[in-house]
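SEVERITY: medium
COMPONENT: batch folding queue
REPORTER: lab tech (J.R.)

DESCRIPTION
The queue accepted two submissions in a row. Attaching both inputs and their returned structure tokens so the on-call engineer can compare them side by side.

ATTACHMENT 1
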Amino acid sequence: MSDSKKMDIEQIRADFPVLHQEVNGKPLVYLDNGATTQKPQVVIDAIANYYRTTNSNVHRGAHTLSDQATQMFEDARTTMQKFLNAAKSEEIIWTRGTTESINLVAQTWVRSNVKAGDEIIISGMEHHSNIVPWQMVCEQTGALLKVIPVLDDGSLDYDAYLKLLSDKTKFVAVVHVSNALGTLNPVEDIIREAHKVGAKTLIDGAQAVAHWDIDVQALDCDFYAFSGHKLFGPTGLGVLYGKEELLNAMPPYQGGGEMILHVSFEKTTYNVLPYKFEAGTPNIAGAIAMAAAIDYLNSLDRVALAKHEDALLARANELAAQTDGIRLIGTSKNKASVFSFLIEGTHPHDVGTLLDQQGIAVRTGHHCAMPVMDQFEIPGTIRASFTFYNTLDEVDALFKAIEKVKMFLL
């Protein structure tokens, strides 16, 4: 890629090696981006180059490779700070993923600040990673878990949310974009109303960061969590943004190396931000590769890419309307490019298997969102999730394959 902004989808596709192969004798059509995005060559190169030329542990090293690795690792943190528009790099905590980021907040700030009778609010469309940690905290503290209902079109019942808020509300944790439905939630409004009653907020941004620019200061969220592998970066790396004053007030999540200033058998004093929450050797290569992914994204016109993704979803909806037997799950007006559906008379897993035989990769099942599947009284869905390197021809290929599946199963 050159330094100029580009919108040539075929040229962009050339940057992703994995897309150019056959599966089961058919050209790969990768429509499972909600589970994980593919990686551009620059990210793959960043990982390989680190291990080839610079591999060393970070911080406190007394040799050149350690100094170089430390500089690259901390430069990556600054890159992430700018990407999210966080006020300080110290507000960026490296984790293993969204799940660990949410658990960190649950077991530090929330567990330390809620008591019996206090209330935590989540929504009915959450991923299990934004349900179970709060159930655990409620069991530990006696706090109560409240759930914002989901409407029939898959959108959040915002009026119900406003009624749930009270002076008992201490924390609100809501997904930015539903992984199962694609619903884009009004998180700025959700945060503002939570703050009015004195509650703190966490936004699960795992499905949002790949689609739009995120400005944590504009959102005014207290915490924001996501995973690198859903942002064209490596697996095993996550990000937790937190406001500095909250992070400073929180106890450490894990004990070990790096998160300490001094250890004796009588007392341990903890390190400053962000290292207080980064016990042990971090995913150094992952952070460096994540910075490469962000630099790659910044070389593109993300507004144009978002419009392209909207066009992909619009084509899918158009073709679905012309196809007998398709039931859409999640039809909110405000959506990311997630297309969840069922084919009447079939099981999602059978459909996914037959699509794979035609080279088309989709996700089937409950998508770690069992409660919302229970609400719709379905075992799961077939989910095609699009990103900017997908094409309209690939959407057409999906529906041609669906017709073949129907011929085989019905």
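ATTACHMENT 2
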Amino acid sequence: MRSKGMGTEMDMRRNAIKAMAVAAVISAHADHAVAVDYRKNPYTLTYAGAITKNEPGKVNIHPVTYKLNGVDISANVYTPADYDPRKTFSAIVVAHPNGGVKEQVAGLYAQRLAEKGYITIAADAAYQGASSGTPRNVDKPANRIEDIHGMADFISRYPGVDTEHLGLLGICGGGGYSLAAAKTDKRFKSIATVSMFNSGRVRRNGYADSQLGNIQERLRQASAARAQEVAGGKIQYAGDARLTDEEISKLPFELYRQGYEYYWKTHAHPGSTFEYTMSSLLDLMRWDATDQMELIDQPLLMIAGSKADSLYMSEDAIAKATGTKDKELFKIDGAAHIETYWVPKYVDAAIAKLTAFYARTI
């Protein structure tokens, strides 16, 4: 889920107005927490329980920027309550979902893991969110994988980080890219995913392999979009971010229905929308997160909701991870895909599992 992002000042204003119009809080009941309006948080965080100010003896947030292959990367580093740069701490890199930004679910999990004593980092992907790069919202696997390597580069030099104790967490599309990064980047002592989304498989085959019949047609459209792009024409985008409530209700998959609610209403952020450059499909459609899964020899934990319509992707990946004997697919009972992003009891279950996993493996 992604969009044009902020290619121009007009785009920035349009996205901000759009997000402000839909930034609503959800009704609280036993299983739900009230989301945060990003406009009311000094760090534009959108999740319940988000940090509002840095205080001694508590988890603190540190906005940072750094260069990665000429692109300015915008990131947040979270430090634990007992942080002292003279001490040493294990660290965890957190990769955000497709079209998400660091202020949403990636920030929530980064903050919760910092509460468990880890230094964590969540960064906006290059060409997305508050990171630079044009055209906006290019979404190529090579870029997203490099983003993860880049987060590891940065956090490894952060005061107090023990580079021998570095973990990786990928959420949704960030989970698929984290699998790919960990195949070769052995700085990561272990890897975990939450609601892993195999972007290549879905862009190629459709969600739940529902578009196998028109792959070639979509490849021709992507090829034409690239030709137009390099000729100086208009950038073509895939992904419709302007659906009505009625249209959303008619979407065939729960992930997409709940995704619109999460990204456009309850946890809206101006840097996060659905569109991505159509030319990116040339790279996405020939890529697959599960290729060469045997290269992962680190401990692997994959977390997914038992009711998630995306569960098949985690099941496929874990079966192909033949290079490690330390692997587990943990299903959160009753959870759907998007619900693992914010529903307290499901997030709590994921954090408890992650905490025990990282304590043992990094």
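NOTES FROM REPORTER
Residues 9-361 form a domain with the Rossmann fold fold (CATH 3.40.50.1820).
No errors were logged for either attachment.
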